[in-house]
């Protein structure tokens, strides 16, 4: 219960729901008692009349039928009221549990949003999804049904058992004897059902993951003629799923017969012991009928003790997993609310970056300066640390050593939101949302205007392409939408950054799928748009950065050279060699043999 105590704040928030719910439970139990008592009275009335008849005395049948009719009305009326209050009980407690489920999901989701990128690398998407859906559902079972039936058990036992004892302590003890056994058995069967359901759930999720992978990778599967292989994998996974499902059905099938057997045993004991007591003159036949009804009232609550216990155990395990995420502190938080106006100067001072999860040293003692309004090229071979520079500039990670100054202030001390608002970032993999092209370009804007969206697409050399689509800017991309070409995707991601009219562009190899001519045109367009904007172009293609005011050359995480294209060519070092290689391979005739 230690982990579940986290939910107390929510239970307190909805305390009135729970308090009125408890009251409704009590009222419904009280109304459940009347039918039992009036059944006893009816039996006693009929027994009295039988005695009178046998003794030859006059019998007032009219009075008897009136009395029985009146009892019947009370029995039906209280049953209806019991039903009504059970309905109110569900409306309060179950509704509160649904609201708590909603609040908890939102809390987890908002917390996810605050967490740093390393957290997302450590935990799989499936795990994140499971905690917000599966685990929260299990926790809801505790707040809703478990609390409701828990209250029901307590109230029913507290009201019914004293009444039973007041009639016959002996009969009560005999009748209650099988009930703890019932509860214990239900607990074990429920545990078994839970364990097997979890296995079924896991197999189902394996099956869905396989199906999802197949659909996402269908092009590769077809290209490699692997359809039969995947069909075979799917059949195997399906067989496994139905095998574990059969095992679950077996325990499920045991559940009801077991309950019925134990309830039957209790009823048998009531009739037998009650009959003996009636013969001894200590009870009436009405009492036996009354006891059978009390027994019916107790059966479900006592059964539910086992069920509720197993729900609580599962909820505890789920809440533990949820708490583990909720207690993960975001490593990068906005340090201040003080407004920050970014002018465009960035300075890396002896920056070293070792990724905490992989231990890879991506940058080693890197120093450089980017002056406001200039265009800087960052070039290097694959894996040399270029994207890491961009990630550090965005403060997606903090450097292991050294510091990054933004207009002279340490990046760790400035208002992150204000700073990031001024950046137009186009990552290597410019993710697009399953939405219209228009909305994808407008993503970073609070109040998008058509003119800004269209002009941004024009600057990214995309407008003509979009207008060729039958639905133009309203064309949907991604799932259930059209498939954009690699270059179109990259240019849409670029238009999204341009639409913000940022102070600084960080273009991380984002035009690799676009031909060099178009790339030149786009970069010229950006320069024309904002002369004051600072631009960092990351590329392994020298043609993309050769016109930059400054070029920084990275190799194995170290800055090996800095200067303009001409200076670096003249120096005849690493850059000049790289340039030579790229020029040669571009000029190489393609061997068609
Ligand atoms: N999030 C991360 N966690 C752990 N290691 C990482 C992470 N990102 C990059 N690395 C590692 O850091 C090194 C530098 O990677 P980085 O992406 O910065 O290189 P790059 O120059 O941008 O390469 P490319 O041109 O192929 O994109 C690589 O060895 C990479 O495996």
From TrEMBL:
State the membrane topology: Multi-pass membrane protein
Domain ABC transporter: start-end pairs:
346-581
Matching entries from PROSITE patterns are given as: ABC_TM1F, ABC_TRANSPORTER_2
Chain segments annotated as transmembrane: 16-34, 68-89, 146-165, 171-193, 251-271, 291-312
Which cell locations does it reside in? Answer: Cell membrane
- What domain of life does the native source organism fall in? Bacteria
Would you tell me the Gene Ontology cellular component terms? plasma membrane
Q: Does the keyword Nuclease apply?
A: no
Locate the ABC transmembrane type-1 domain: which residues? 19-314
One GO molecular-function entry: ABC-type oligopeptide transporter activity
Which UniProt keywords are present, listed alphabetically?
Answer: ATP-binding, Cell membrane, Membrane, Nucleotide-binding, Transmembrane, Transmembrane helix, Transport
Q: What is this protein called?
A: ABC transporter
């Amino acid at each position: 219960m230690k982990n579940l105590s986290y939910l107390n704040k929510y239970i307190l928030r909805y305390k009135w729901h729970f308090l009125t719910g408890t009251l409704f439970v009590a009222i419904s139990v009280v109304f459940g008692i009347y039918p039992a008592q009036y059944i006893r009275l009816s039996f006693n009335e009929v027994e009295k009349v039988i005695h009178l008849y046998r003794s030859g005395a006059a019998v007032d049948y009219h009075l008897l039928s009136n009395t029985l009719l009146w009892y019947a009305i009370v029995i039906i009326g209280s049953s209806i009221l019991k039903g009504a209050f059970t309905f109110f009980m569900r409306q309060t407690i179950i509704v509160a549990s649904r609201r708590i489920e909603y609040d908890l999901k939102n809390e987890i989701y908002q917390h996810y949003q605050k967490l740093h990128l390393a957290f997302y690398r450590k935990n799989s998407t499936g795990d994140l999804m499971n905690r917000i859906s599966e685990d929260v559902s299990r926790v809801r079972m505790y707040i809703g049904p478990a609390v409701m039936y828990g209250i029901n058990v307590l109230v029913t036992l507290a009201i019914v058992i004293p009444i039973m004892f007041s009639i016959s302590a002996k009969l009560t003890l005999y009748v209650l004897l099988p009930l703890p056994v019932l509860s214990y058995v239900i607990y074990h069967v429920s545990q078994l059902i839970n364990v097997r359901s979890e296995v079924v759930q896991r197999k189902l999720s394996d099956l869905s993951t396989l199906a999802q992978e197949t659909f996402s990778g269908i092009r590769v599967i077809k290209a490699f003629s692997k359809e039969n292989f995947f069909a075979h994998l799917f059949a195997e996974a399906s067989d496994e799923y139905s095998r574990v499902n059969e095992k679950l059905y077996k325990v499920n099938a045991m559940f009801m017969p077991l309950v019925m057997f134990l309830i039957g045993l209790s009823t048998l004991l009531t009739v037998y012991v009650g009959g003996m007591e009636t013969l001894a003159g200590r009870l009436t036949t009405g009492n036996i009928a009354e006891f059978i009804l009390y027994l019916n009232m107790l059966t479900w609550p006592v059964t539910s003790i086992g069920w509720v216990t197993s729900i609580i155990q599962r909820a505890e395990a789920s809440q533990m997993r949820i708490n583990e995420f909720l207690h993960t502190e975001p490593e990068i938080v906005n340090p201040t609310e003080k407004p920050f106006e970014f002018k465009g100067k960035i300075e890396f001072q002896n920056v070293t970056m070792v990724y905490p999860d992989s231990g890879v040293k991506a940058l080693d003692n890197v120093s450089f300066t980017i002056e406001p309004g200039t265009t800087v090229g960052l070039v290097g071979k694959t894996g040399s640390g270029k994207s890491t520079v961009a990630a550090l500039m965005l403060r997606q990670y903090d450097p292991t050593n050294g510091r990054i100054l933004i207009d002279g202030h340490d990046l760790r001390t400035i208002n992150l939101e204000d700073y990031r608002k001024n950046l137009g970032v186009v990552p290597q993999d410019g993710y697009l949302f399953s939405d219209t092209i228009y909305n994808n370009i407008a993503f970073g804007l609070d109040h998008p205007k058509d003119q800004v969206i269209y002009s941004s697409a024009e600057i990214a050399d995309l407008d003509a392409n979009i207008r060729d689509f039958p639905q133009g800017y309203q064309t949907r991309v991604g799932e259930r939408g059209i498939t954009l070409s690699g270059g179109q995707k990259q240019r849409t991601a670029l238009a999204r950054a341009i639409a913000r009219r940022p102070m600084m562009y960080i273009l991380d190899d984002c035009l690799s799928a676009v031909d060099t001519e178009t790339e030149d045109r786009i970069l010229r367009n950006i320069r024309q748009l904002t002369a004051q904007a600072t631009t960092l172009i990351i590329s392994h293609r020298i043609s993309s950065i050769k016109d930059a005011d400054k070029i920084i050359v990275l190799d194995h995480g170290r800055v090996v050279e800095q200067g303009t294209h001409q200076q670096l060519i003249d120096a005849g070092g690493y850059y000049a060699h790289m340039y030579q290689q790229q020029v040669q391979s571009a000029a190489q005739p393609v061997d068609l043999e």
